[in-house]
Specification:
Helix content: 40-55%
Bound molecules: zinc ion
Strand content: 5-15%
CATH topology of the largest domain: Lysozyme-like
Strand order of the largest sheet: 3-6-5-7-4-8
CATH class of the largest domain: Alpha Beta
Shape: elongated
CATH superfamily of the largest domain: Peptidoglycan recognition protein-like
Number of domains: 2
Radius of gyration: 29 Å
């Protein structure tokens, strides 16, 4: 008699344990299924391949433009010299840009060097591999504009913003980093042209300093007012472009 009670008690406990074991097993299985589903989930998986193509699409305001088309138009300008770097790991990775949200202005930081010399430096990196560096454009002290990396490709210039910006490096005669008048005029011309084509305005033009806090372009970090004047000059030039009669504008849309 005395042994029955414990036996009954243990028999009653077993089904409860089994129930817990089963419930635990079910929870584990559901967890594994949910985990697998989450891991395999890829938003926009269907269109991912297209977005990586050669013709990235930029949505600027009411317009949709292909960056590759803007690049073609740029290549036809007689005031921009095409001296594209060879595709290489150190200065032109050949990575497609999918959007451009800002134009970043830099100074070369090497007083008295020409645009051609700076372009050669980028080019030599392909062999020396000493660092990663380049910019989409270089503007020389006589106002010459060199395009080194197409605007629809990543250049190594603005740190973590390389993926969605265009970079323009400017030469300068002295340590102060101030641009010559010719450099300045070309910078305004190029920047306003790009803003118009890409649906940007002068508020989208920033300094390397605004990305990382680096003193670049030096003169326009030390002289905030000169930077503001530059931006208003860009906006003024942009307003002139946008006020042009429709036929002249039409090239941009076509
Ligand atoms: Zn810089």
């Amino acid at each position: 008699m005395t042994t029955r009670t414990p036996q009954r008690t243990s028999r009653r406990k077993r089904p409860v344990r089994r129930l817990f074991t089963r419930l635990f097993g079910i929870v584990i299985v559901i967890g594994i299924i949910l985990g697998a589903a989450l891991l395999s989930y890829r938003p926009f998986a269907g269109s991912g391949g297209e977005a990586q193509g050669d013709l990235p699409i930029y949505l600027g305001g009411a317009r949709t433009v292909s960056l590759a088309e803007v690049q073609d138009k740029l290549a036809a300008l007689d005031w921009v010299k095409q001296v594209l770097l060879p595709v290489n790991d150190y200065s032109r990775p050949g990575t497609a840009l999918e959007e451009i949200n800002n134009i970043v202005v830099h100074y070369v930081g090497n007083p008295g060097t020409t645009a051609a010399q700076n372009r050669s430096y980028f080019s030599r990196l392909a062999d020396s591999g000493e660092t990663l560096a380049s910019s989409n454009f270089l503007i020389g002290m006589e106002g010459e504009i060199l395009e080194c990396v197409p605007i629809n490709e990543v250049a190594y210039c603005s740190n973590w913003r390389n993926e969605d910006t265009i970079s323009i490096e400017c030469c300068h005669p002295g340590e102060s980093g101030e641009f010559t008048n010719d450099t300045y005029d070309s910078l305004v011309r190029l920047t306003s042209w790009l803003c118009n084509e890409l649906g940007l305005d002068s508020s989208d033009v920033i300094r390397h300093y605004d990305v990382t806090g680096k003193e670049c372009p030096k003169y326009y970090v030390e002289h905030e007012n000169a930077w503001e004047v530059f931006k208003s000059d860009v906006q003024e030039a942009l307003d002139v472009i946008q006020a042009l009669p429709a036929p002249e504008q039409k090239g941009a849309a076509d």
